[in-house]
């Protein structure tokens, strides 16, 4: 855990209240039991007793803050609209659930470090497949959805942002525009895409749990938005969406992303 995780004001405020409550409870129990600190330590002056209580309080405050930060450093669990949402460090490809993979609007499958980067989640997914032709066939044969119909641009078929095509255990997401060999997405388009994505997940998930990555945290960057804001936006759009989802959702983060996000603050927001 990075020391920066302890810079959260909310963390220290919660830990302070916990420490105060604990000390107050001990004081009450001691009063009822007619027990005093002087029964254990030979002190007579009131300020000596005060210093001991203050020392115990400060130690308890610090220990509580560290424990809370450590517990939130690897995973947290939230309840959003009755949906269990777990945010954790991990490898999305090891998940037994639906696994969401972001594509560009054309659902390109050429991994050449130009169209699709090999080190991107999209590239890693495609390179794991043994039959790319089968993937292309499934994409071409995907049924049109009235609200998410495919269109043509510059002689190529593209899909609205947020459109999902299922393939094996994967949910393939049209996530970004693609122009001049660059994936592009504005913050406004990011929110629109996420809202459409939740509705699409509701349409296709077939009552199976879903695992998604931190969208926008990889090759496709959202201008001026860090990992914390991206994660909060994902959760906010889920909270305000009309999507009917009744199975758990897992958001998988890399260690690098977790180091940049204070999950304790995220948990307190939601």
Structural topology:
Blueprint: H1 9-32, H2 46-71, E1 75-80, E2 83-89, E3 98-104, H3 121-128, H4 132-140, E4 151-153, E5 156-158, E6 164-167, E7 170-179, E8 182-184, H5 187-204, E9 210-213, H6 227-240, E10 249-253, H7 255-260, H8 263-269
Parallel strand pairs: 2-10, 3-7, 3-9, 9-10
Antiparallel strand pairs: 1-2, 4-5, 6-7, 7-8
Helix pairs in contact: 1-2, 5-6
H/E series, N to C?
HHEEEHHEEEEEHEHEHH
Unreliable spans are none
Rg, Cα atoms, Å: 25 Å
Number of strands: 10
Describe what this molecule looks like in 3D.
The structure is a single chain. The chain has 8 helices and 10 strands. With 270 residues, it is of the alpha/beta class. The chain has 2 domains: 3-71, no CATH class; 75-269, 3-Layer(aba) Sandwich (Leucine Aminopeptidase, subunit E, domain 1), CATH 3.40.220.10. The strands form 2 sheets. Strands 1, 2, 3, 6, 7, 8, 9 and 10 form an 8-stranded mixed beta sheet that branches. Helix 5 crosses helix 6 (227-240).
Summarize it:
This protein has helices at 9-32, 46-71, 121-128, 132-140, 187-204, 227-240, 255-260, 263-269; strands at residues 75-80, 83-89, 98-104, 151-153, 156-158, 164-167, 170-179, 182-184, 210-213, 249-253.
């Amino acid at each position: 855990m990075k020391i920066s995780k302890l810079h959260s004001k909310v963390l220290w405020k919660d830990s302070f209240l916990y420490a105060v409550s604990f000390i107050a409870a001990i004081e009450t129990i001691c009063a009822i039991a007619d027990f005093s600190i002087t029964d254990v330590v030979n002190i007579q002056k009131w300020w000596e007793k005060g210093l001991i209580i203050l020392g115990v309080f400060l130690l308890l405050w610090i220990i509580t803050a560290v424990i809370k930060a450590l517990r939130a450093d690897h995973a947290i669990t939230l309840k959003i609209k009755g949906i269990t949402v777990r945010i954790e460090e991990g490898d999305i490809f090891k998940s037994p659930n639906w696994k969401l993979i972001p594509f560009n609007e054309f659902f390109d499958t050429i991994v050449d470090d130009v169209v699709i980067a090999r080190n991107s989640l999209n590239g890693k997914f495609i390179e794991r497949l043994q039959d790319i032709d089968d993937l292309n066939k499934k994409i071409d044969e995907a049924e049109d959805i009235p609200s998410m119909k495919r269109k043509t641009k510059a002689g190529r078929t593209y899909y609205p942002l947020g459109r999902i095509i299922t393939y094996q255990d994967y949910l393939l997401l049209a996530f970004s525009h693609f122009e001049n060999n660059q994936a592009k997405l504005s913050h406004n388009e990011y929110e629109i895409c996420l809202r459409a994505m939740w509705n699409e997940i509701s349409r296709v998930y077939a009552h199976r749990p879903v695992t998604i990555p931190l969208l926008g945290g990889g090759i496709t960057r959202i201008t001026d938005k860090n990992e914390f804001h991206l994660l909060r936006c994902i959760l906010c759009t889920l909270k305000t969406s009309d999507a009917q989802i009744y199975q758990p959702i897992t958001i998988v983060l890399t260690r690098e992303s977790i180091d940049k996000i204070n999950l304790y603050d995220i948990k307190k927001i939601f």
